[in-house]
Design a protein that fits this description.
mainly alpha, single chain
C-alpha cells in the first residue's frame, strides 16, 4: 500500500503537474505547449505502469478496496481530465 501511495505522490501526480498547471492555471496564450507535451509523455508512462499493474486485478493491493485505490483513482481522474488526449485504457 505504501509503495502505491508513494508512487502516486512522487511519480504519477508529479509527472502530470506541468500539464495540469499549464492547462488550468494559465491563459491559453501563455501556455507552454512543449512543457505540456513533455509532462503528458511522462504521465502516459505512469498510466502505462498503472494499466499493467491493474491488469487482472480489481484493486491496487490485495482483495479489498483500500486507501491506495483512493489515492491512485484521484490521480487517474485528474489525468483523464487534463485536455491532452490521453491514450484510451480499460
Amino acid at each position: 500500500m505504501h509503495q502505491w501511495l508513494d508512487w502516486q505522490a512522487t511519480a504519477f501526480t508529479l509527472a502530470m503537474r506541468d500539464a495540469f498547471l499549464q492547462s488550468f492555471r494559465f491563459k491559453p496564450a501563455d501556455r507552454d505547449q512543449a512543457l505540456i507535451a513533455a509532462s503528458a509523455a511522462r504521465s502516459e508512462r505512469c498510466a502505462e505502469i498503472l494499466d499493467r499493474h491493474l491488469n487482472g486485478r480489481d484493486f491496487m493491493v490485495g482483495e479489498r478496496f483500500g486507501i491506495a485505490d483512493i489515492a491512485v483513482a484521484c490521480a487517474a481522474y485528474r489525468w483523464l481530465n487534463i485536455p491532452v488526449d490521453p491514450k484510451p485504457r480499460p
